[in-house]
Every structure is written in structure tokens, then in C-alpha cells.
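[Archive record]
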Amino acid sequence: MNSALLRIACAATVALLAPMAGPVLAQADLSGQWAAVNQQDNMARGAGPDLVDYTGLPINDEARAVALGYSAAVLSMTERGCMDYTENYLLFAPHSIMIERVNDPVTGDVRAWRISAGGSDRAPITIWMDGRPRPSPNAPYAFSGFTTGEWVGDRLVARMTHMKRGIMRRNGVPLSDRATMTLHLLRRDDLLTVMGVITDPIYLDEPLVQTGVWRLNPRGNTPATNPTCFPFSELPRLDTPGSVPHFLPGTNPDAETFARRYNLPLEAVYGGAQTIYPEFRKTLRETYTPPAACTRYCCGWGGGNPQASGLRCIARER
């Protein structure tokens, strides 16, 4: 009798645990050091995008006006030299990253995942997995944001709020502090893909989707910390109080440089929701003439892809 009861109890336990086993087993171990695979958007991740290149961004008129008033000289100001980018920089930065699993010391459950900065220009991201409530909209905003996550099958979905004002691209396209970002982290063997969906009621007409790919570094020899940033004035003229580099409306000298270099119409270069769809490309068929030959960034930046690509570039003229 006792043996029969034991078998029944064991069967009941298995039945209860079976629904839980699938989601748990589907979760992936994201911890480790991950080397950036900069095959995608190589130029933008490395040397940086062209000035006034807003292609592929669903920005509105206000964002475009702010971007056209941006001068890169603003980064030379003492108070801005060590200022972090906002967390969406993870999606278009060239850096490798390290992901740490933070366990609860009592239960052993994953309390959080921590994604290192990878560079000295972004704060680490902590993805809280313990169900803690989201802060009030009036709570302080930080360059690290506030992020909570949950597993959806084998994909970690993390939603970030409380982000500082920042950029969508390293040529001054703005991102407001009303923006939110949803990250989707998916591991496939030794590859990690991170997709971010960014919404911004101030500067975006539609969500902006960006992705990055990293490859596991089994040697684990990526430095866990980065050199300390020391702020100083790079341009003596910026020592004058109240001097902030910028362009007044209609005075940006590079407003049409990128468009002329690649024979693109301004409506394509200046971005907008309509430009991210295939239908927009069809409107350019009759008017667009490609440049005769590649003269710049023909093989990525610096003559090739610098990290983990395994690619070889062959530049050909048309």
C-alpha cells in the first residue's frame, strides 16, 4: 500500500512540475563575455555616420530641426566630455559587452542580469527579474534607466523607462527623456542577438528598431573595466561661460553634403516614417542615379571590419 501511495504521490508531483519545466528549460544562460560582430552598420558603429545622415529613422519635423542644429563641437565642452550616452547606444555601439548573472543569495534564483557598459561612454544596464515595481514617472531619471525583464520562451524581453535625454545616432539626432525601449535578447549557440524597439512621443512618428550581434568570447579576456575618463576643455574658446556650439536654423554648412555625395534627394536623407518602407524606394527609381564609383568607406572603416567578422572586403568600381 505504501509503495502504491508513493507512486501516486510521485506521479502527482511530476504532473504539477511538468507545466513549469518547459519555460524554465527554454531560458538561456546569457552570462559571459561577448565580442561585438560589427558586420551590420559597420560604418556607423565604427568611425561614425555621416553628418546629416538621417536615413532609416522615422523622425518627425521637430527631431529633424534639433538634429540640424547639432554641432559635434559640443562634445568638446568640459562638462560634456565624460557624459554618458543613453542606453539605446548599446544597439549601435562597436563595443564588446559582458553579461553577469546576479543570483539571490538564499534561493539561487536569478535576481537580475547586468550588461556591462563595454565602453566608457555608457552606463551598465541592470535588468531586474525579481518582479519589483516600476518607479513613479516623477522618480529621478538616470543614464542607466530602469529595466525589468521576463522570459518569453527562450527570449529575454526587457522594458526600459526613466531614460535620460540622448541620441538615436551619433550625428545629433535626438532622443527625448520620454522615450522607452524594449530589448529582446536571444542566444543561439555562441551568438547573441539584441533587438531594441524604441518609442518616443516627442521625436518619433513610429517605433525605431535597431539590432546588434555579439559572439561569445570563450577566453574571457575582455577587460571588465574601462579607462577612466578625465574631462578637460578641448577647445579654448569653449572656456567662455555660456558658449555652446550649435547651428542656428538654416545655417548648418553640411545640411546637403551627404545628399550630394551619394546623389540622394533630401527627402530621403532627412528621414521620416515614410522613408523606412519599401514603397518609398520605388518612388526614387526614376530619379536616383548611383555614384559612378565608391570613394569613401568602401570597405567599412579603416579598410575593413575590425572585430570578429572574418570577412574580406573587395572594393570594385561600377
DSSP finds six helices and eleven strands in the chain. The first strand starts at residue 32 and ends at 36. Helices lie at 2-26, 42-45, 61-68, 257-261, 266-269, 278-282.
